[in-house]
Design a protein that fits this description.
This protein is an alpha/beta fold. The chain contains eight helices and twelve strands. Bound molecules: calcium ion. Calcium ion binds next to loops.
């Protein structure tokens, strides 16, 4: 089980991330400021560090620099929206990647898995992420979808939505969970966005989009993928 050290001072965000990452099978340690985070890393290490840029006391930049003096552990920076310069700085500091707030859990988890894969030399025991059902094949590594062997172009959100449904084939997924995982827990947009994306997916994937066989509505509850 990969161990993640999360250094983030916004308690609401770190609690939500800890919950979601643990649900994905990671062990998560949380520290709320830079000095404590660095101390924790030096004491107990980690397989990956999620590091907020704007931290009280010792900043994310400082922590990143200090960690890099003695370790090449993968580091993903969490930056606030619009901090373009900080993004660049984050990578120049030796971070492996960054995500900008607000980000969806799925986006973050995809980055974490990609960074861990790269750091482990690539493909060591990690199963390929290919989902199949009802003539639909989704290859999460290659970001490709085919229907009966024919390539279909999906937007990023359509792809993430389909992947979530196919990963949970047969299960009803609540609207709230889908929105949280695909759009982020701080998504305040129109909840019909989900229905619009489902409709687009049906148009692209279903033989008869008006009588869907795979992307089913569970009225008043959510959606379900049936192979
Ligand atoms: Ca912060």
């Amino acid at each position: 089980m990969p161990r993640i050290l999360l250094i983030e001072d916004e308690e609401g965000l770190s609690a939500a991330l800890q919950y979601q990452l643990e649900r994905e099978g990671f062990a998560v340690d949380v520290e709320g400021d830079g000095a404590a985070g660095l101390e924790r890393f030096r004491r107990s290490g980690a397989d990956l560090v999620l590091l907020d840029l704007m931290l009280p006391g010792l900043s994310g930049e400082d922590v990143c620099r200090e960690i890099r003096k003695g370790s090449d552990v993968p580091i993903i920076m969490l930056t606030a929206k619009g901090e373009e310069i900080d993004k660049v700085v984050g990578l120049e500091l030796g971070a492996d990647d960054y995500v900008s707030k607000p980000f969806s859990t799925r986006e973050l988890i995809a980055r974490i898995k990609a960074v861990l894969r790269r750091s482990s030399g690539g493909g060591t025991g990690e199963p390929t992420s290919v989902y199949e059902g009802g003539g639909i094949v989704l290859d999460a590594e290659r970001f490709e979808v085919t229907v009966d062997g024919r390539p279909v172009h999906l937007s990023r959100k359509e792809f993430e939505l389909l992947q979530l449904l196919m990963e949970n084939a047969g299960k009803v997924l609540l609207r709230e969970r889908i929105i949280e995982e695909v759009w982020g827990s701080d998504y305040f947009g129109d909840t019909r966005t989900l229905d619009v994306h489902i409709k687009r997916l049906r148009d692209k994937l279903e033989r008869d989009p008006r009588a869907p066989e795979h992307l089913l509505t569970v009225r008043g509850v959510g959606y379900r993928f049936v192979p």
